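Data card: per-record layout.
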Amino acid sequence: MSVPVSSARAAGLCAATIFVSAFLLFLVQPMVGRQILPWFGGSAAVWTLCLVFFQLLLLAGYFYAERLARRPLRTQAAVHALLLLAACATLPVIPGAAWRPDGQGDPSLGVLAVLAATVGLPYLAVCTTGPLVQSWVARLHAHDAQRRARVYRLFALSNLAALAALVAYPFAIEPVFALRTQALAWSAGFVLFALLALGSLWAVARWQRCAGEAPAAAPAARPAAPPGWRDQLLWLLLSALGTVALLAVSAFITQDIASVPLLWILPLALYLLSFVLCFDSERWYRRAVFWPAVLLLVPVMGWYPTTAQRALPIAAAVGLYALGLFAVCMFAHGELARAKPAPERLTRFYLMVALGGAIGGLFAGVAAPHLFDGYWELPLCLALPGLLMLWLTRGQQRGPWPWFAFGVVAGFAAWLRLASVAVSSGVYHAMVAALALVAVAYTARRARSWSAGAGLMGAFAAAAVAWFTLSNLRETDGRTALRVRNFYGALRVEQFGATDSPTASRRLMHGVISHGEQRLGAVARRLPSTYYGPGSGAGLAIAARGTQPQRVAVIGLGVGTLAAYGRPGDTYRFYEINPLVMAVARSHFSYLADSPATIEIAQGDARLLLQRELEARGPQGFDVIVVDAFSGDSIPMHLMTREALALYARHLAPGGVVAFHISNRHLALAPVVRRLADTAGLQARRVHHVPDADSPALEHTSEYVLLSRDAGFIEGAAMREHGEPIEASAAAPWSDDHANLLAAMRWTPR
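The structure for this 750-residue chain is written out next.
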């Protein structure tokens, strides 16, 4: 005689399975990304590619669930148990050394390959759980329409678990546990999940068998009609919109507003929160609240990049884009929740949601860097919500009146510009906005529906974003000599003044961060500028060797400024991972060409290249190693670990110096480097240089930490005048396996 299982107990076991699976789902993403990040130069694009990979695998998992859910439970049990066992056989989720890249070419395929080999099957097994287990719960409540409709709340539960994992990793897991410990703990959690999944399937099958033996309490509901192609297209577009908005806003915040470590967590948390709210209950999403919010915030977000020097304070700008992203995601996911089908069609719904997310991720993470020379996916995702609003209200746009109103506003805006009416930009935009509001009110009155007016206002908002983007492009093209983009980011070369002007200069920008600047005059162009002047830590370290020839290694090329110190007989070897930076440094700046030293450039990640050189040719005998590969305020941590410093030390000549460039608004890195120096038996001094205001070489304030075993250098005249001791840190030294970034944060950025 079989033991009966209540539907409530089976549903509770299913809910626990979904929660654990979603927690593991979002815990493995930063964990595995953190493991492979050093292999690919610490670029933020690695995180984007990780998200793309997980979106693609999520699509595969949802397709698997959609097909398997149509089969009898006995078949589902056999197939899914086989997948779980196969995934368990690939544990633990630790990347093998054989997958390390060689540093050549576009690393996109390498990132995807190592992820597939390391976490492919376990992640696939985890991501199938949400829709598959929800289909099992729908079976439990086949005779209860009210409970069956609540099955979508499990989707909210899964996103809540994902949000918990997202917050827990950087604040509670990464600072405490080493990477190997994290991987082993996650693998143990996966085994627990596999047991829960099998237990859920057993409970549902046992309940269904018992229910089949008892008389039916009520007739089963009539199967819902299959969704049409318009419905599925809408699901796909709304899902893609959320993903593209997440990636585009994350890239803009972290590269054009503030390169604050961990700031990528905020957009992803808001993205997940919108899923939680929209699928938890209908009360959270109200068109009357979020449509006006989107219509108000989207044009402002489109306007902000056009302002000179970014007119808003950093906190206000981050707040604007965070609030705007949340409004857009609430719109996208709220409309998704409104359009969801009956529970028996939920696997197809989730399949289209996953397909939209994968398409959005591929577009923003893979295609956009090759198609665009800037971050043009941001204005695209800002314009799309308004167009979707117009589409959703198409049935209420009666007759030709909406299009007539749109034509009047567009014609008036064009006339103001073409007629050269003497109004300021602010007045111009205010006049056009006022006329647009009148047109919207007129349309809403004719249609007797506020949503009809909102749909037309969406078209105006999309037009405003396009207008701001084109205007900004036209204005910046006046000083932009070059704009290029690849896997590692978008670069632009800005020129100030005519080429023959004595004060003319060129600057290489990555977002809002300068990667070097050079005067164009015949004499001034040979002077080291920005963070590398004679009084900087790099300048002092290079000058310490006097007139004897020296070998200098520079990790991070920029525009090649340090080559200005080169003399005949010197060798300057630059390590640069981004081939576009190498091309720009040669084509638009002359530091490398003007230097009388021997210039060598090695493409690839510096640590990988230095390790290979050590194994192939032995120590390079560098007199100075300058570590300056930081992308703005975001640092590739694998260049500041105990293992990295040990590698640098082996390449140093006797008495050599390692100079860490640590100028940073958001991280206090001097104690971190001092702690590394203590473990390596090196002495450390900080050099904080503030240049003269009338410096002819465009010098900037800089901060370095210089490390050496040479007591003569550390106690010499230069360090007595410019250097200062560093307070010891009680924190554990950073290593490849463990780094506590939060402990180094400046919570009041300078």
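Known properties of this structure: Residues 576 and 582 are 7 Å apart (CA to CA). The radius of gyration is 29 Å.

See the next section for split statistics.
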